[in-house]
Amino acid sequence: MQVMELGIQHRDFDLPFTEVTIANQKFLLLIDTGCSATISLNERLTQKLPLIYTGNKISFYRPNGTIYHSKEIVIPEIVFGEISCQNVAGREDGKWLEETSLSKQGILGLNFLQNYHVIFDLGNNKLILSKSEETIRQLDYPLEKWTSHPFSLTNVGIVLEGEINQHPCKFVLDSGSSHTVLKRSFLTNNKITEANSVDICGTKIKNPLLLELQEPSQVDGVIGNNFFSSHKLYFNFEKNLLLIGKD
Question: How far apart are the two ends of the chain, measured CA to CA in Å?
Fold first, then answer.
């Protein structure tokens, strides 16, 4: 595989979904950088799929602090467009996928995406994956003109540093979140009375929501899909570097 291009469908608060095929059945998976899974499938839909169950359990926390338990699986073959991938690790989830109104079929998560060089071009309804930076730079994107910003990969996901009213802050990048959200406590602790935008490397994200997030406690907010949809983004997970281009 040189380049894998996934078509994007915008559903549920304009969030990005892509269609995959497993054993001749089609699934819509939410593209979710805020989910640690490789691929998560709803157990209600997997009963007739030829999945391999490893016998291992996976436990994880959701942002509200609730712990969930999943079965570890291996998918013998999954088809993205015209590209077939074999023996893809994942998990089978039930309750929490049913509880969310966003993705009841499944999720394509960060642990899958970080194996590739990734371009989010949601304005043109596509996600591009490649195994090499060289191949990405041969595509029709003026990466040399894009702004660069380092990020950290932590247990809560992709973490970027930014500013709110000149106060330094940290955000987790979550394409599965419909909005950009700030912690009220961050504003209170820094005596900020009004925050109309978030500044990430000179890129402004306007009108963030204000909530008292319980998790992840290591960051001051969540950069959501409004950021992913309004910019072209290149993630270089080998260098932990994000390039940001305007749509």
Answer: 27
Count the residues in the chain: 247
- pLDDT tens digit string along 217-235? 678 888 889 889 989 999 9
Q: What letter would DSSP give residue 212?
A: -
pLDDT tens track for 41-79: 998 888 889 999 999 998 876 655 567 789 999 999 999
Amino acid identity, position 51:
L
Which of left, alpha, beta for 156 (phi over 0: left; psi -120 to 50: alpha)? alpha
Q: Is the backbone peptide bond immediately before 216 cis, with ω within 30 degrees of 0? A: yes
The whole-model pTM stands at: 0.89
Closest CA to 72 of 95, 47, 89, 60: 89
Place of tokens 């304009």: 14
Residue with tokens 């949809």: 229
Nearest-CA neighbor of 223 among 234, 236, 209, 235? 209
What 3-state class would DSSP assign to 82?
coil
